[in-house]
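cron nightly-structures :: item 1 of 1
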Amino acid sequence: MSSQNLPAKPERVIVYIDGFNLYYGLKQANLGHARWLDLGLLSRRILKPNQSLVKTKYFTARVKGRDPGPRKRQAIYLQALETRTDLEIIYGRFMRKKNGVCHRCGHRWTNWEEKMTDVNIAAHLVADAMGDRIDKAILVSGDSDLAHAIELVKASSAVRVVAIFPPQRSSYDLKKVVDASLTGRSF
């Protein structure tokens, strides 16, 4: 059998999902029903017929704050995601920021800031590209902080990168460096 008759090797794809970017985009677009997305199914539906899903990587941090409701809902969602063998959760963290103060009454509260998500996405993207684990990266995020990591991947490998912007999210800086971009209006 000649090499011309052999079926084409499927393109290896990892989907990188920026959890907070996706969540807040859906929330801002009033798509609350979609915040409990089956991320593995979403990743498979993004693929073209000649592509093979290596893994979905979901980047998030466990929420902090006084209200137990968001923590409980997130814990339930993360437990469901952890049952998937085709999905890996990579955790960042929340860090205490400067306390907020009401200028009228003097009430104080703690502000929290999510840290490490963009760094973790960038590190995994570069490691997967340099480790020859992917042919294409699909990034679900509108975070412009990822542009430099994408430039490094494209300069050092043949990996193609596609950005899918969550609803209400976009980035001119990402659009400039990716091979293609889509707006995720139909989550």
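cron nightly-structures :: done
Residues 3-183 form a domain with the Rossmann fold fold (CATH 3.40.50.1010).
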